[in-house]
Design goal:
Layout: E1 12-16, E2 24-25, E3 34-44, E4 55-69, H1 74-81, E5 87-89, E6 92-94, E7 110-118, E8 121-122, E9 130-138, E10 153-160, E11 172-174
Antiparallel strand pairs: 1-2, 1-7, 3-4, 4-10, 5-6, 7-8, 7-9, 9-10, 9-11
């Protein structure tokens, strides 16, 4: 029976900055990790057919990755909130929550790899992994304080079309070349 190389269902591990020495596992999440691609098509019309389309032209696609992070370390939250490194304060650290404006995101974007988990074991088979070449977190926060709701950081990554050879025009790959390693290093 055929199945998707990434599996039909189940959780995953997410690696930020894949391929670099500073690669980081993004930690635990609660709820759905959701990779979404939307493609826009512009209709071609002619007066004699009214509002009905007689043809269509691809106008481009957008892609986002949503991760509901929970129980995160300060290093993981620093990525999710795009806040910079944790700030030392005596024997503790804290994060600054910044108002961000006017920043070029593509130049800061990093690769993300998504690896399926089966039976509490993270896949070591690169043919089952998804790689997104250029991603950057768009900070957001929706924290609930009550006696029954677990706090999460709903993190949305904007996935950019790669502008560098040999991947120009690609968002990423479904499956990776054989020989790809744990963190690409």
């Amino acid at each position: 029976m055929p199945k998707l190389p990434i599996g039909d269902m189940g959780p995953c591990e997410i690696v930020w900055n894949y391929g670099e020495t500073a690669a980081l596992y993004l930690g635990e999440y609660l709820g759905q990790v959701k990779l979404t691609m939307d493609t826009k098509v512009n209709d071609i019309q002619q007066e004699s057919d009214g509002d009905a389309a007689v043809d269509g032209i691809y106008a481009g696609s957008t892609m986002t990755l949503e991760i509901p992070l929970t129980r995160s370390t300060l290093d993981e939250l620093a990525i999710a909130l795009n806040s910079g490194a944790p700030v030392p304060s005596g024997s503790l650290e804290y994060l600054e929550i910044k108002n961000q404006i006017g920043c070029d995101l593509y130049s800061l974007a990093k690769s993300i790899v998504i690896k399926p988990i089966c039976g509490d074991v993270v896949s070591t088979d690169p043919s089952e992994w998804i790689q997104l070449f250029k991603c950057y977190p768009i900070p957001g926060m929706d924290l609930v304080f009550d006696r029954a709701t677990q706090r999460i950081f709903p993190t949305k990554f904007k996935v950019f079309v790669d502008q560098d050879s040999p991947y120009t025009g690609l968002f990423g790959t479904l499956g990776m070349p054989s020989g790809s390693t744990e963190y690409g290093i």
